[in-house]
Structure formats: C-alpha cells, structure tokens
Amino acid sequence: MNFIYVLGIIPLFLYIINRKVGVATYYFLPFLSLLALASLYEYVGTYLLRLNTGYWFRIYSLLEFYVVWYFYYKILEFKKCYIIYGSLYLLLYGYLLIDWSPKNKIIEDLPLTIAITLMVVVSSFLWFVDVFKKMEDKALYRRTEFYYISSLLIYFTGTFLVFLMADYIINNDSIKLLDYWVLIIIFNLILRVTLIFTVWKARIKSEH
C-alpha cells in the first residue's frame, strides 16, 4: 500500500526536476500538486498517525473538483459554461455542509461525486470532438492532453462505479470489504502510473 503514496508524489517530482514541459502539463500542475499533497497527508495522517480522515476528504473533494475544473477550463472553450458550473458546484458544496457528518460520508458525498464525474465525462467528450473536428495531422498518442484526459476519465468513471456499489458491498456479507478497497487501489494505481508516464514523456519531448 505504501508504494501507492510514493507513486502519487513522483509526477510532481518529475515536473520539478525539469520544468520545460508543454502548456498542457502547466495546466495540469495544480492536480499534480494536489495528488502529491494528498499522498503525503494520507501516508502521515492515515497510515502513521491514524487520524480521522473524514474532514480531510471533505476538503479534498472541494480542491479536487477545482483543479480538474481548471484543467478543462484552460484547454477547452465554453468559458462561461465552466464558470457557471464551477459556481453551482460551490453552492452545492456549501449546501451539503449544513448537515454533513463524517459518519454518512458515502451517501452525502454522492452529489459531489456525480458533479465531478459528469464534468470529466462531458469535458473529455468535448475535447475528443474538438480534436477530430479539426482533423490535425498530430496523432492522439503524441498529444500530452490525451494522456491526462484519459487518466482522469478512467479514474473518475471507475471510482464512480465503485462508489455506487459501496453500500451494496458494505452490506453484503458475501463480499469482503477488502474487495472494495482493492478496486479503489487499482484505479488509483492506474491514475498514478499514467501520470508518471505522461509527465516523463513530456519531459523527454522537451529535451529534444
């Protein structure tokens, strides 16, 4: 499990040792920074100090939404739509805080999970549509944005499906709770490995 925390720090480390990367990585830097911070906090706070993580994850959900929002806001058009959506999310977040309790985290966080997953799916779709409409010669695998968007799409849709099954898994004796966390770890692993490869790839391209 500890290696997951380390993998979360590596993308930011790769950026720090060589900042000559493309503009897409600059736009994605807030997410890389938050991922590194979350990995450090979860290792120290959760693994070492055994602190209650309910409040941290609540704050993290707010930060996570806006670093992802920022990335799509910068690479796509529809600026006004993103500003409106970002404002609506803040209102939703504030409203849900009124009766929020760490004990009911799974149920009460569902609207926030839906909001960020919806944004990722729709924004990713718009990016792919825009790329194919322009019909540029540059292949998808040569675009840094493609890897960032793919990693977000896989991670958020995957964890969202697991999130929807959480109540069933927890209340079903035939399914071990460990299986739930294994799925979460797998999607976290995919995200971190993909980001390491992407930042490294951007670094290699900048050296040539």
Question: Could you list the spans in which at least 5 consecutive residues all have pLDDT below 50?
Answer: none
Q: What is the share of helical residues?
A: over 70%
Question: What fraction of residues sit in β-strands?
Answer: under 5%
- Name the helix and strand elements from N-terminus to C-terminus, one letter apiece: HHHHHHHH
Q: Helix/strand/pairing class, anyone?
A: mainly alpha
Compute the number of strand runs: 0
Rg is 18 Å
Shape: globular
How many alpha or pi helices?
8
- What is the domain total for the residues? 1
Task: Give the CA-CA distance, first to last residue.
Answer: 36 Å
Major sheet size, sense and barrel closure: none
Overall pLDDT, averaged? 86
Note down, in words, how this protein is organized:
This protein has 208 residues and is mainly α. The protein has one domain. The protein is built from eight helices and no strands. The chain has helices at residues 2-17, 23-48, 54-75, 79-97, 105-108, 110-134, 144-171, 177-207. Helix 1 packs parallel to helix 8 (177-207), helix 3 (54-75) packs parallel to helix 6 and helix 7 packs antiparallel against helix 8 (177-207). It is globular, with a radius of gyration of 18 Å. The model has no long low-confidence stretch (mean pLDDT 86).
Task: Give the topology.
Blueprint: H1 2-17, H2 23-48, H3 54-75, H4 79-97, H5 105-108, H6 110-134, H7 144-171, H8 177-207
